[in-house]
Amino acid sequence: MNILVTGGSRGIGRAAALLGGARGWSVGVNYVRDATAAAQTVEEVRNAGGRSMKLKYDTTREDDVKDMFGAHESYFGTLSGVVINAGITAESMPLAEFTSERLKRVLDTNILGTYLCAREASRRLQKSDKHNRSIVFVSSVASKLGSPNEYVDYAGSKGAIDSLTIGLSKELGPKGIRVNCVRPGIIRTDIHEHSGDPDRADRLGNMSPLGRPGEASEVGEAIVWLLSPQASYVTGGLLDVAGGR
Ligand code: NDP
Which domain of life does this protein belong to (predicted)? Predict the structure, then answer.
């Protein structure tokens, strides 16, 4: 398969990229700031047996998104799968204290960026001659829990992704393209550093029914399964990978 992973350089995106590499897939690794992490992930995907390239593009910018998909296609050829994963949080606080700058940053990355990538993916995948074509979004169980006093902006942005998954799966199903999302719970990645609480991942993860935070690879496994032909009759799915949270 030939896939593109937004935010593929670190955390959950990186895990999906590595697992794709281990299956011999071609994997475009998108990032925006940390070129060292992206280069390392590309190297690891290659070592795992896949082909890989890094793609420095900002998913919140329309021209960047178009250029990113174009660069990926020029290098690897026709696309078969897209993981729309790039997302951010901000410091934990009640909505009344949010600055407009914070709101714009979170909603632009998590909603606008996701929609821009989904639009480009849907255009490209409709032209693709590949047998197994699909999109996997990375949402969050925050969409149903709401994250009060922490990140209601983040939770709402993930609700938008759930809804987009449902709508787009119905638009693209008749064209043979599957659309699903995974909804991680508390997963041990760098994203929790933005909360201002260094113990957040362990504290909340330990309160889940499985009694621990998840690992990025546990979400990556769900993502590569949804992309694979083994999930050929799965579309419109919202798959929680959250330890029961
Ligand atoms: P990380 O902070 O570890 O990684 C985020 C990735 O997104 C990095 O590769 C980063 O690149 C990239 N990125 C951020 N903004 C942009 C942008 N504008 N354009 C391109 N790339 C961008 O996060 P996680 O792996 O934890 O999170 C991945 C997804 O999983 C997110 O959507 C998040 O909401 C979701 N999720 C995570 C959970 C968790 O507990 N970890 C729980 C539920 C959902 P760079 O390093 O260059 O900035």
Answer: Eukaryota
Task: Kindly report the pTM of this predicted structure.
Answer: 0.98
Which residue is it, tokens 């699903």?
180
Domain locations along the chain? 60-241
Structure confidence by residue, pLDDT tens digits, 95-108? 999 999 999 999 99
In order of 45, 194, 208, the CA distances from 216 in angstroms are 15, 17, 16
Question: Residue holding tokens 């925006």?
Answer: 32
Q: How far is the CA of 131 from the centre of ligand 1 (A)?
A: 29
Distances in whole angstroms, Cα of residue 75 to Cα of each of 17, 18, 116, 187: 17, 19, 21, 32
Q: What CATH superfamily classification does 60-241 receive?
A: NAD(P)-binding Rossmann-like Domain (3.40.50.720)
Beta pairing partners, 163: none
The reply to whether ligand 1 has any atom less than 6 angstroms from the CB of 137 is: no
pLDDT at 196 over 80: no
